[in-house]
Amino acid sequence: MASNKGDNKKGGRGGGVYLAAVEGGGTTFVVSVACVLSYDDENSDSSSSTIINIGSTKLQILHTATIPPSGEEEYTPQQIIDEACNFFKMHLPSPNGCYSALGIATFGPAGVDPNTMNESYGTILSGSPKKLWRGLDILSPISEACGLLSVDRVGFDTDVNAPALAEFRHRCYQLEEQQNDDHNNNNKPLTSLAYITIGTGVGVGLVINSQPVHGLLHPEGGHICVQPLPNDNFTGYSWGPKSPYQGKSTVEGIASSVALTERCIQMEQEREMVKKLYRPSSSSSDNNTTTTGSSSDDDKIKKNKMNGDNAQTREILTKLPDSHPIWLHASNAIANLCVSILLLTSCQKIVLGGGIMKRTILYPMIRSRVHTLLNGYLDSVDELSTEDKLKDVIVTSSWEEVGSGLVGAYNLALDKLEDVTTNDDTQQKLKKQKLKSEESERHLFTSGVLAGIGISFGCALMVSLLGRGSSRR
Fold this sequence. Notes:
By secondary structure, the chain is of the alpha/beta class.
Protein backbone atom coordinates (compact mmCIF):
# COMPACT_ATOMS: atom_id res chain seq x y z
CA MET A 1 0.00 0.00 0.00
CA ALA A 2 1.05 3.61 -0.50
CA SER A 3 2.35 5.53 2.47
CA ASN A 4 -0.11 8.33 3.16
CA LYS A 5 0.41 11.68 4.84
CA GLY A 6 -2.33 14.14 5.77
CA ASP A 7 -5.75 14.04 7.32
CA ASN A 8 -8.42 11.60 6.25
CA LYS A 9 -11.27 14.05 5.89
CA LYS A 10 -12.53 14.78 2.42
CA GLY A 11 -12.91 18.33 1.30
CA GLY A 12 -11.22 21.52 2.35
CA ARG A 13 -11.40 25.22 1.70
CA GLY A 14 -10.93 27.47 -1.28
CA GLY A 15 -14.41 27.37 -2.80
CA GLY A 16 -14.20 23.69 -3.70
CA VAL A 17 -11.17 23.98 -6.01
CA TYR A 18 -9.31 20.68 -5.57
CA LEU A 19 -6.20 19.71 -7.50
CA ALA A 20 -4.64 16.28 -8.04
CA ALA A 21 -0.91 15.98 -8.73
CA VAL A 22 1.46 13.18 -9.73
CA GLU A 23 5.25 13.27 -9.74
CA GLY A 24 6.18 10.15 -11.68
CA GLY A 25 9.65 8.72 -11.19
CA GLY A 26 11.07 5.60 -12.76
CA THR A 27 10.74 3.59 -9.55
CA THR A 28 8.43 5.64 -7.29
CA PHE A 29 5.45 7.94 -7.75
CA VAL A 30 4.42 10.75 -5.42
CA VAL A 31 0.67 11.43 -5.52
CA SER A 32 -0.99 14.35 -3.80
CA VAL A 33 -4.25 16.27 -3.33
CA ALA A 34 -4.49 19.98 -2.50
CA CYS A 35 -7.08 22.74 -2.38
CA VAL A 36 -6.61 26.30 -3.57
CA LEU A 37 -6.84 28.76 -0.71
CA SER A 38 -8.74 31.98 -1.24
CA TYR A 39 -7.76 35.28 0.38
CA ASP A 40 -10.30 34.62 3.14
CA ASP A 41 -8.47 31.40 4.05
CA GLU A 42 -5.00 32.91 4.45
CA ASN A 43 -5.34 33.45 8.19
CA SER A 44 -6.93 30.05 8.82
CA ASP A 45 -5.25 27.43 10.95
CA SER A 46 -3.07 25.28 8.71
CA SER A 47 -0.83 23.69 11.33
CA SER A 48 -1.99 20.19 10.38
CA SER A 49 -1.10 20.51 6.69
CA THR A 50 1.52 21.94 4.34
CA ILE A 51 0.98 25.29 2.64
CA ILE A 52 2.90 26.13 -0.53
CA ASN A 53 2.98 29.21 -2.73
CA ILE A 54 3.35 29.12 -6.50
CA GLY A 55 3.64 32.77 -7.39
CA SER A 56 0.54 34.45 -5.97
CA THR A 57 -1.41 31.19 -5.66
CA LYS A 58 -1.58 29.49 -2.27
CA LEU A 59 -2.22 25.75 -1.99
CA GLN A 60 -3.00 23.64 1.06
CA ILE A 61 -1.76 20.07 0.59
CA LEU A 62 -4.33 17.74 2.13
CA HIS A 63 -3.00 14.26 1.30
CA THR A 64 0.29 12.92 -0.05
CA ALA A 65 1.54 9.37 -0.61
CA THR A 66 4.67 7.71 -1.96
CA ILE A 67 4.23 4.60 -4.08
CA PRO A 68 5.73 2.21 -3.10
CA PRO A 69 6.47 3.34 0.47
CA SER A 70 10.11 3.62 1.49
CA GLY A 71 11.58 0.28 2.48
CA GLU A 72 9.12 -1.86 0.51
CA GLU A 73 10.01 -4.01 -2.47
CA GLU A 74 9.76 -2.35 -5.87
CA TYR A 75 6.33 -2.34 -7.53
CA THR A 76 5.73 -3.15 -11.15
CA PRO A 77 4.69 -0.15 -13.29
CA GLN A 78 1.10 -1.41 -13.40
CA GLN A 79 1.02 -1.77 -9.61
CA ILE A 80 2.21 1.83 -9.26
CA ILE A 81 -0.50 3.09 -11.62
CA ASP A 82 -3.17 1.03 -9.83
CA GLU A 83 -2.12 2.35 -6.40
CA ALA A 84 -2.12 5.93 -7.72
CA CYS A 85 -5.67 5.44 -9.04
CA ASN A 86 -6.81 3.99 -5.70
CA PHE A 87 -5.31 6.97 -3.87
CA PHE A 88 -7.19 9.53 -5.95
CA LYS A 89 -10.45 7.59 -5.76
CA MET A 90 -10.10 7.45 -1.97
CA HIS A 91 -9.78 11.23 -1.71
CA LEU A 92 -12.30 12.29 -4.36
CA PRO A 93 -13.80 15.60 -3.23
CA SER A 94 -17.48 15.75 -2.42
CA PRO A 95 -20.08 16.50 -3.68
CA ASN A 96 -18.69 16.95 -7.21
CA GLY A 97 -17.06 13.56 -7.43
CA CYS A 98 -14.15 14.87 -9.47
CA TYR A 99 -11.12 17.10 -9.09
CA SER A 100 -10.98 20.56 -10.59
CA ALA A 101 -7.80 19.69 -12.49
CA LEU A 102 -4.96 17.15 -12.61
CA GLY A 103 -1.26 17.64 -13.29
CA ILE A 104 1.12 14.78 -14.15
CA ALA A 105 4.88 15.40 -14.25
CA THR A 106 6.59 12.20 -15.36
CA PHE A 107 10.04 10.93 -16.21
CA GLY A 108 10.88 10.80 -19.89
CA PRO A 109 10.99 10.24 -22.69
CA ALA A 110 7.24 10.75 -22.73
CA GLY A 111 4.59 11.80 -25.24
CA VAL A 112 3.87 15.35 -24.08
CA ASP A 113 2.38 17.00 -27.18
CA PRO A 114 -1.28 16.10 -27.87
CA ASN A 115 -1.16 17.81 -31.27
CA THR A 116 1.77 15.94 -32.86
CA MET A 117 1.84 12.78 -30.75
CA ASN A 118 -1.84 11.94 -30.35
CA GLU A 119 -1.26 8.18 -30.36
CA SER A 120 1.52 8.27 -27.77
CA TYR A 121 0.32 11.28 -25.79
CA GLY A 122 0.32 10.51 -22.09
CA THR A 123 2.55 7.45 -22.42
CA ILE A 124 6.18 6.55 -21.76
CA LEU A 125 7.85 6.28 -25.16
CA SER A 126 9.50 3.15 -26.52
CA GLY A 127 12.97 4.70 -26.26
CA SER A 128 12.93 4.63 -22.44
CA PRO A 129 15.77 2.65 -20.84
CA LYS A 130 13.18 1.48 -18.29
CA LYS A 131 11.87 -1.38 -20.43
CA LEU A 132 8.91 -2.29 -18.20
CA TRP A 133 7.51 1.23 -18.66
CA ARG A 134 7.76 1.39 -22.45
CA GLY A 135 4.44 2.22 -24.08
CA LEU A 136 2.57 2.35 -20.76
CA ASP A 137 -0.38 4.77 -20.68
CA ILE A 138 -0.11 6.91 -17.54
CA LEU A 139 -2.58 9.63 -18.43
CA SER A 140 -5.83 7.74 -19.15
CA PRO A 141 -6.26 5.57 -16.01
CA ILE A 142 -5.27 8.34 -13.59
CA SER A 143 -7.50 10.89 -15.34
CA GLU A 144 -10.40 8.46 -15.14
CA ALA A 145 -9.74 7.81 -11.44
CA CYS A 146 -9.87 11.58 -10.87
CA GLY A 147 -13.26 11.79 -12.58
CA LEU A 148 -11.81 13.78 -15.48
CA LEU A 149 -12.92 12.22 -18.75
CA SER A 150 -11.68 15.16 -20.84
CA VAL A 151 -8.01 16.16 -21.21
CA ASP A 152 -9.06 19.81 -21.05
CA ARG A 153 -8.47 19.69 -17.30
CA VAL A 154 -5.35 17.48 -17.35
CA GLY A 155 -1.80 18.79 -17.72
CA PHE A 156 0.90 16.32 -18.79
CA ASP A 157 4.62 17.09 -19.10
CA THR A 158 8.02 15.85 -17.98
CA ASP A 159 9.20 15.95 -14.38
CA VAL A 160 11.74 18.58 -15.39
CA ASN A 161 9.81 20.88 -17.74
CA ALA A 162 6.94 21.12 -15.25
CA PRO A 163 9.11 22.20 -12.29
CA ALA A 164 11.18 24.44 -14.57
CA LEU A 165 8.04 26.41 -15.45
CA ALA A 166 6.88 26.45 -11.82
CA GLU A 167 10.28 27.69 -10.62
CA PHE A 168 10.35 30.30 -13.37
CA ARG A 169 6.92 31.74 -12.58
CA HIS A 170 7.50 31.69 -8.84
CA ARG A 171 10.85 33.51 -9.13
CA CYS A 172 9.37 36.05 -11.58
CA TYR A 173 6.65 36.78 -9.04
CA GLN A 174 9.25 37.20 -6.28
CA LEU A 175 11.24 39.64 -8.46
CA GLU A 176 8.09 41.67 -9.14
CA GLU A 177 7.31 41.81 -5.42
CA GLN A 178 10.86 42.97 -4.66
CA GLN A 179 10.62 45.70 -7.28
CA ASN A 180 7.27 46.83 -5.89
CA ASP A 181 8.83 47.07 -2.42
CA ASP A 182 12.03 48.71 -3.65
CA HIS A 183 11.58 51.07 -6.59
CA ASN A 184 15.36 51.49 -6.83
CA ASN A 185 15.79 47.77 -7.48
CA ASN A 186 17.32 47.43 -10.96
CA ASN A 187 17.48 43.64 -11.17
CA LYS A 188 17.20 42.27 -14.69
CA PRO A 189 13.84 40.68 -15.47
CA LEU A 190 13.99 36.88 -15.45
CA THR A 191 13.38 35.40 -18.91
CA SER A 192 15.24 32.07 -18.77
CA LEU A 193 15.72 29.21 -16.32
CA ALA A 194 16.92 25.60 -16.35
CA TYR A 195 15.81 22.94 -13.92
CA ILE A 196 18.01 19.86 -13.50
CA THR A 197 16.90 16.82 -11.54
CA ILE A 198 19.46 14.22 -10.52
CA GLY A 199 17.88 11.02 -9.26
CA THR A 200 17.66 7.54 -10.77
CA GLY A 201 18.10 9.41 -14.04
CA VAL A 202 19.13 12.95 -14.97
CA GLY A 203 16.71 15.33 -16.66
CA VAL A 204 16.78 18.93 -17.84
CA GLY A 205 13.82 21.29 -18.23
CA LEU A 206 14.26 24.62 -19.98
CA VAL A 207 12.32 27.87 -20.03
CA ILE A 208 13.71 30.22 -22.69
CA ASN A 209 12.22 33.63 -23.47
CA SER A 210 9.63 32.90 -20.79
CA GLN A 211 8.35 29.78 -22.61
CA PRO A 212 9.02 26.08 -21.88
CA VAL A 213 11.04 24.32 -24.58
CA HIS A 214 9.43 21.36 -26.32
CA GLY A 215 10.44 21.38 -29.99
CA LEU A 216 10.59 17.90 -31.53
CA LEU A 217 10.02 16.24 -28.14
CA HIS A 218 11.40 17.77 -24.95
CA PRO A 219 14.96 18.43 -23.70
CA GLU A 220 16.99 15.32 -22.80
CA GLY A 221 20.06 17.12 -21.48
CA GLY A 222 20.95 14.35 -19.04
CA HIS A 223 22.33 12.33 -21.94
CA ILE A 224 24.93 14.79 -23.23
CA CYS A 225 28.57 13.71 -23.14
CA VAL A 226 30.85 15.29 -20.54
CA GLN A 227 34.54 15.40 -19.74
CA PRO A 228 35.16 12.73 -17.07
CA LEU A 229 37.79 13.12 -14.39
CA PRO A 230 41.30 11.90 -15.27
CA ASN A 231 41.88 8.13 -15.00
CA ASP A 232 38.19 7.40 -14.63
CA ASN A 233 37.87 3.67 -15.33
CA PHE A 234 34.13 3.31 -14.70
CA THR A 235 32.80 0.89 -17.30
CA GLY A 236 29.36 2.49 -17.63
CA TYR A 237 25.93 2.03 -16.08
CA SER A 238 23.39 -0.72 -16.73
CA TRP A 239 20.94 1.56 -18.57
CA GLY A 240 23.64 2.43 -21.09
CA PRO A 241 22.77 -0.06 -23.86
CA LYS A 242 19.43 1.75 -24.43
CA SER A 243 20.81 5.27 -23.97
CA PRO A 244 22.57 7.80 -26.24
CA TYR A 245 26.34 7.25 -26.50
CA GLN A 246 25.72 3.85 -24.89
CA GLY A 247 25.58 5.77 -21.61
CA LYS A 248 29.36 6.19 -21.53
CA SER A 249 30.73 9.47 -20.17
CA THR A 250 27.27 11.06 -20.10
CA VAL A 251 25.83 13.05 -17.21
CA GLU A 252 23.29 10.35 -16.38
CA GLY A 253 25.91 7.64 -16.95
CA ILE A 254 28.04 9.21 -14.22
CA ALA A 255 25.89 11.25 -11.81
CA SER A 256 22.56 9.37 -11.58
CA SER A 257 21.92 7.25 -8.50
CA VAL A 258 21.93 4.16 -10.73
CA ALA A 259 25.40 5.00 -12.08
CA LEU A 260 26.78 6.08 -8.69
CA THR A 261 25.58 2.85 -7.07
CA GLU A 262 27.16 0.74 -9.79
CA ARG A 263 30.38 2.72 -9.51
CA CYS A 264 30.40 1.96 -5.77
CA ILE A 265 29.94 -1.73 -6.48
CA GLN A 266 32.72 -1.65 -9.07
CA MET A 267 35.06 0.16 -6.66
CA GLU A 268 34.29 -2.37 -3.91
CA GLN A 269 34.94 -5.28 -6.24
CA GLU A 270 38.24 -3.73 -7.31
CA ARG A 271 39.24 -3.30 -3.66
CA GLU A 272 38.42 -6.95 -2.96
CA MET A 273 40.54 -8.00 -5.92
CA VAL A 274 43.46 -5.92 -4.64
CA LYS A 275 43.06 -7.45 -1.18
CA LYS A 276 43.18 -10.94 -2.64
CA LEU A 277 46.28 -10.12 -4.69
CA TYR A 278 48.24 -8.67 -1.81
CA ARG A 279 46.83 -10.66 1.14
CA PRO A 280 49.57 -12.86 2.66
CA SER A 281 48.74 -16.54 2.05
CA SER A 282 48.71 -18.48 5.32
CA SER A 283 47.42 -21.88 4.25
CA SER A 284 45.67 -23.58 1.41
CA SER A 285 42.50 -23.81 3.51
CA ASP A 286 42.53 -20.04 4.04
CA ASN A 287 43.00 -19.55 0.32
CA ASN A 288 40.10 -21.87 -0.39
CA THR A 289 37.96 -20.01 2.12
CA THR A 290 38.83 -16.67 0.53
CA THR A 291 38.10 -17.91 -2.95
CA THR A 292 34.82 -19.44 -1.87
CA GLY A 293 33.82 -16.25 -0.07
CA SER A 294 34.58 -14.16 -3.13
CA SER A 295 32.59 -16.47 -5.36
CA SER A 296 29.73 -16.37 -2.89
CA ASP A 297 29.76 -12.56 -2.95
CA ASP A 298 29.69 -12.54 -6.75
CA ASP A 299 26.78 -14.98 -6.75
CA LYS A 300 24.98 -12.82 -4.20
CA ILE A 301 25.45 -9.74 -6.36
CA LYS A 302 23.96 -11.51 -9.38
CA LYS A 303 21.20 -13.24 -7.43
CA ASN A 304 20.00 -10.11 -5.59
CA LYS A 305 20.41 -7.84 -8.60
CA MET A 306 23.05 -5.89 -6.76
CA ASN A 307 23.10 -3.09 -9.32
CA GLY A 308 21.83 0.46 -9.51
CA ASP A 309 18.52 -0.61 -11.02
CA ASN A 310 17.49 -1.99 -7.63
CA ALA A 311 16.04 0.58 -5.21
CA GLN A 312 17.22 -1.21 -2.08
CA THR A 313 20.75 -1.45 -3.45
CA ARG A 314 20.79 2.30 -4.12
CA GLU A 315 20.31 2.86 -0.39
CA ILE A 316 24.08 2.35 0.00
CA LEU A 317 24.54 5.90 -1.31
CA THR A 318 22.90 7.34 1.82
CA LYS A 319 25.54 5.67 3.99
CA LEU A 320 28.56 7.08 2.15
CA PRO A 321 30.50 9.95 3.78
CA ASP A 322 30.81 13.33 2.08
CA SER A 323 34.50 12.55 1.55
CA HIS A 324 33.78 9.53 -0.66
CA PRO A 325 35.33 9.93 -4.14
CA ILE A 326 32.07 9.23 -6.01
CA TRP A 327 30.86 12.72 -5.10
CA LEU A 328 33.79 14.17 -7.05
CA HIS A 329 32.64 12.27 -10.13
CA ALA A 330 29.03 13.35 -9.59
CA SER A 331 29.85 17.02 -9.08
CA ASN A 332 32.13 17.04 -12.13
CA ALA A 333 29.44 15.57 -14.41
CA ILE A 334 26.74 17.95 -13.13
CA ALA A 335 29.12 20.91 -13.45
CA ASN A 336 29.83 19.92 -17.06
CA LEU A 337 26.10 19.98 -17.72
CA CYS A 338 25.71 23.40 -16.10
CA VAL A 339 28.56 24.79 -18.21
CA SER A 340 26.98 23.40 -21.40
CA ILE A 341 23.63 24.99 -20.49
CA LEU A 342 25.28 28.34 -19.75
CA LEU A 343 27.20 28.31 -23.03
CA LEU A 344 24.26 27.13 -25.15
CA THR A 345 21.33 29.02 -23.63
CA SER A 346 22.86 31.80 -21.51
CA CYS A 347 20.35 30.81 -18.81
CA GLN A 348 19.98 33.22 -15.90
CA LYS A 349 19.15 30.56 -13.31
CA ILE A 350 19.99 26.87 -12.97
CA VAL A 351 17.95 25.11 -10.29
CA LEU A 352 19.27 21.77 -9.05
CA GLY A 353 16.92 19.19 -7.53
CA GLY A 354 16.32 15.46 -7.17
CA GLY A 355 17.39 12.86 -4.64
CA ILE A 356 21.13 13.11 -5.26
CA MET A 357 21.08 16.86 -4.52
CA LYS A 358 19.97 16.12 -0.94
CA ARG A 359 23.71 15.60 -0.51
CA THR A 360 24.18 19.34 0.07
CA ILE A 361 27.99 19.16 -0.11
CA LEU A 362 27.49 18.88 -3.89
CA TYR A 363 26.34 22.51 -4.33
CA PRO A 364 29.68 24.19 -3.48
CA MET A 365 31.56 21.41 -5.29
CA ILE A 366 29.51 21.97 -8.46
CA ARG A 367 29.88 25.76 -8.36
CA SER A 368 33.64 25.46 -7.86
CA ARG A 369 33.95 23.02 -10.76
CA VAL A 370 31.78 25.22 -13.02
CA HIS A 371 34.04 28.19 -12.35
CA THR A 372 37.10 26.06 -13.15
CA LEU A 373 35.61 24.64 -16.37
CA LEU A 374 34.51 28.08 -17.64
CA ASN A 375 38.18 29.03 -17.39
CA GLY A 376 37.48 32.77 -17.19
CA TYR A 377 35.76 32.81 -20.60
CA LEU A 378 32.58 34.44 -19.26
CA ASP A 379 34.15 36.65 -16.60
CA SER A 380 32.75 39.67 -18.45
CA VAL A 381 29.32 38.53 -17.22
CA ASP A 382 29.21 39.83 -13.66
CA GLU A 383 27.00 36.99 -12.38
CA LEU A 384 29.57 34.42 -13.58
CA SER A 385 32.76 36.31 -12.76
CA THR A 386 33.50 34.66 -9.40
CA GLU A 387 32.77 31.35 -7.72
CA ASP A 388 30.94 33.17 -4.92
CA LYS A 389 28.59 34.94 -7.38
CA LEU A 390 27.60 31.58 -8.84
CA LYS A 391 25.57 31.06 -5.65
CA ASP A 392 22.91 33.29 -7.23
CA VAL A 393 23.00 31.43 -10.56
CA ILE A 394 23.20 27.76 -9.51
CA VAL A 395 20.56 27.52 -6.82
CA THR A 396 18.43 25.13 -4.76
CA SER A 397 14.76 24.41 -5.28
CA SER A 398 12.17 26.92 -4.06
CA TRP A 399 10.29 24.03 -2.45
CA GLU A 400 12.91 21.75 -0.92
CA GLU A 401 10.52 20.24 1.62
CA VAL A 402 7.82 19.29 -0.88
CA GLY A 403 10.02 18.97 -3.97
CA SER A 404 9.93 20.91 -7.23
CA GLY A 405 8.66 17.90 -9.18
CA LEU A 406 5.42 17.69 -7.22
CA VAL A 407 4.97 21.46 -7.24
CA GLY A 408 5.55 21.36 -11.00
CA ALA A 409 2.67 18.88 -11.31
CA TYR A 410 0.43 21.22 -9.31
CA ASN A 411 1.46 24.07 -11.58
CA LEU A 412 0.37 22.02 -14.62
CA ALA A 413 -3.03 21.52 -12.97
CA LEU A 414 -3.32 25.26 -12.22
CA ASP A 415 -2.51 26.08 -15.85
CA LYS A 416 -5.27 23.77 -17.08
CA LEU A 417 -7.69 25.21 -14.55
CA GLU A 418 -6.88 28.71 -15.77
CA ASP A 419 -7.31 27.65 -19.40
CA VAL A 420 -10.71 26.11 -18.66
CA THR A 421 -11.79 29.15 -16.64
CA THR A 422 -10.64 31.48 -19.42
CA ASN A 423 -12.45 29.36 -22.01
CA ASP A 424 -15.59 29.33 -19.86
CA ASP A 425 -15.39 33.11 -19.50
CA THR A 426 -14.87 33.44 -23.24
CA GLN A 427 -17.81 31.14 -23.92
CA GLN A 428 -19.97 33.19 -21.55
CA LYS A 429 -18.95 36.39 -23.31
CA LEU A 430 -19.65 34.85 -26.71
CA LYS A 431 -23.00 33.58 -25.45
CA LYS A 432 -23.90 37.05 -24.17
CA GLN A 433 -22.77 38.59 -27.46
CA LYS A 434 -24.87 36.05 -29.36
CA LEU A 435 -27.93 36.75 -27.20
CA LYS A 436 -27.37 40.47 -27.62
CA SER A 437 -27.02 40.01 -31.38
CA GLU A 438 -30.17 37.89 -31.54
CA GLU A 439 -32.04 40.47 -29.46
CA SER A 440 -30.79 43.19 -31.75
CA GLU A 441 -31.91 41.19 -34.78
CA ARG A 442 -35.35 40.65 -33.21
CA HIS A 443 -35.54 44.37 -32.48
CA LEU A 444 -34.63 45.20 -36.05
CA PHE A 445 -37.14 42.68 -37.33
CA THR A 446 -39.87 44.05 -35.09
CA SER A 447 -38.96 47.60 -36.09
CA GLY A 448 -39.04 46.58 -39.75
CA VAL A 449 -42.43 44.95 -39.39
CA LEU A 450 -43.82 47.96 -37.60
CA ALA A 451 -42.30 50.26 -40.16
CA GLY A 452 -43.82 48.16 -42.94
CA ILE A 453 -47.22 48.23 -41.27
CA GLY A 454 -46.89 52.00 -40.82
CA ILE A 455 -45.95 52.52 -44.46
CA SER A 456 -48.77 50.24 -45.64
CA PHE A 457 -51.27 52.09 -43.46
CA GLY A 458 -49.96 55.43 -44.69
CA CYS A 459 -50.24 54.35 -48.32
CA ALA A 460 -53.78 53.05 -47.76
CA LEU A 461 -54.71 56.32 -46.10
CA MET A 462 -53.27 58.34 -48.98
CA VAL A 463 -55.13 56.22 -51.54
CA SER A 464 -58.35 56.66 -49.57
CA LEU A 465 -57.92 60.43 -49.36
CA LEU A 466 -57.07 60.72 -53.05
CA GLY A 467 -60.13 58.60 -53.90
CA ARG A 468 -62.43 60.92 -51.94
CA GLY A 469 -60.97 64.00 -53.64
CA SER A 470 -61.52 62.50 -57.07
CA SER A 471 -65.17 61.62 -56.39
CA ARG A 472 -66.02 65.20 -55.30
CA ARG A 473 -64.82 66.57 -58.56
